[in-house]
Amino acid sequence: EAECPGGCRNGGFCNERRICECPDGFYGPHCEKALCAPRCMNGGLCITPGLCICPPGFYGINCDKANCTTTCFNGGTCFYLGKCICPSGYEGDQCEISKCHQPCRNGGKCTGRNKCKCSKGYQGDLCSKPVCEPGCGLYGTCTEPNKCQCKEGWHGRHCNKRYGASSLSALRPSGSKQRQQSPSPKRAEERHVPPESNYIW
């Protein structure tokens, strides 16, 4: 039987070319390394096939989970004790510092140094400008998403319709006076009952 320099470990066999042939789950010149699938992460050490020894702060079959007591804000993810991976737009140990000096408005998210990603219906550096599509024309101002405030004399969803004479007369109160109804006798009597009266009508 051939001998391999340094020997073959973990049940490895030394072939006639003096190279170790390793059993399943081991590899290396001396079959000294175990194979873990999935591989050990975050500095974990594979000691036998499929078994990782995890460094402090990590656990899981392949050391992929962190023992986190740290709270990460603004959508950050804890990846090690006291350390957070922050989404773009935030920084700091706990992702508590916004990269936007002024906060993004109307549901916008800070995505970088003073850059906001606006929610639907808003635009501008701080997401403070509402969007009206296709717009409010020459006679309107966009006040909310897809809501136009029309100037006097104009109407319509996009402030592109002018009030005509027929429309204006419809808005004015008519000249005919409504006939006032006289109150019913019972109501008239109720009005004249003194507040301290015990009568029930």
TrEMBL record:
Sequence segments annotated as region (Disordered): 169-201
InterPro entries on file: Dev_Signal_Modulators (IPR050969), EGF (IPR000742), EGF-like_CS (IPR013032), EGF_extracell (IPR013111)
UniProt keyword annotations, A-Z: Disulfide bond, EGF-like domain, Repeat, Signal
Any single GO CC term annotated in Swiss-Prot or TrEMBL for this entry: cell surface
Cysteines paired by S-S bonds: 4-14, 22-31, 68-78, 86-95, 100-110, 118-127
Skewed-composition ranges (Polar residues): 175-184
Entry's Gene Ontology molecular function annotations: signaling receptor binding
Pfam family, one: EGF_2
EGF-like domain mapped to chain residues: 1-32, 64-96, 97-128
Protein's name according to its UniProt entry: WIF1 factor
Naturally occurring in which organism (per UniProt): Indicator maculatus (spotted honeyguide)
